[in-house]
Specification:
single chain, 200 residues, alpha/beta, Rossmann fold, 5-stranded parallel beta sheet, globular, binds adenosine-5'-diphosphate, ATP-binding, cytoplasm, ATP binding
């Protein structure tokens, strides 16, 4: 089994920037956010189950999931969120395991904003946190997506606090400078992971 690195960080911390750097080193990256979208695509068993449980209103005319309607529904009714997660989480987990197993690279990365929150770290051998101050997170995420400061703060609030993530992670990189500064910190870690993967 290939050595699996779990990569995480709060919104705007620089996870994607770090993932892209690892991909440029020919490391396969499995993105939990992408998998989460894939498992509810047309024809997927999880989408059939969602329609069965929530009703036809959750499906658009073209057969795809009506994300905004579902989002609004679970926002109003927290138990509906739980029901939804009971369907999607196992499907996401299974798909992540399959994609990690199929990956062909010296080691493989699972990137997930909720690596610790959803226990996805259990699927990994080692974890790396991309850390940034809340101020930087807000600055970067708002200039990336044009989201309001309030929206970003809400997302930060439902994510595990920084200090707790720092305690959980095996390695921590503070992304508080230029991108070159981030890459300079990733380079020695990449060499360490290659060595760890060799003896894994
Ligand atoms: P995440 O995936 O953790 O939400 P991203 O990697 O997408 O965060 O980073 C958020 C935004 O900030 C992106 O536009 C990214 O290019 C930019 N960014 C990340 N790290 C840095 C940095 N060290 N210096 C400048 N911009 C950065």
């Amino acid at each position: 089994m290939t050595f699996i690195l779990g990569l995480t960080g709060g919104i705007g911390s620089g996870k994607s920037a770090a993932s892209q750097w690892f991909e440029a080193q020919n490391i396969v990256v499995v993105d939990a956010d992408i998998v989460a979208r894939e498992v509810v695509e047309v024809g997927q068993p999880a989408l059939v189950q969602i329609r069965h449980i929530f009703g036809d209103w959750v499906i658009l005319e073209n057969g795809a999931l009506n994300r905004s309607a579902l989002r609004e529904h679970i926002f109003k009714d927290p138990s509906a969120r739980q029901t939804l997660e009971q369907i999607t989480h196992p499907a996401i987990r299974t798909a992540i395991i399959e994609q990690l197993a199929a990956a062909q690279s010296p080691y493989v990365i699972l990137v997930s904003p909720l690596l610790f929150e959803t226990n996805q770290h259990e699927l990994t051998d080692h974890t790396l946190l991309i850390d940034a101050t809340e101020e930087l997170q807000i600055q970067r995420a708002s200039s990336r997506d044009g989201q309001s400061v309030e929206q970003i703060q809400k997302i930060i609030q439902v994510q595990m606090p920084r200090e707790q993530k720092i305690q959980h992670a095996n390695d921590v990189v503070l992304n508080d400078g230029h991108l070159e500064h981030l890459y300079a910190q990733l380079r020695p870690l990449h060499l360490k992971y290659l060595a760890q993967a060799e003896i894994h």
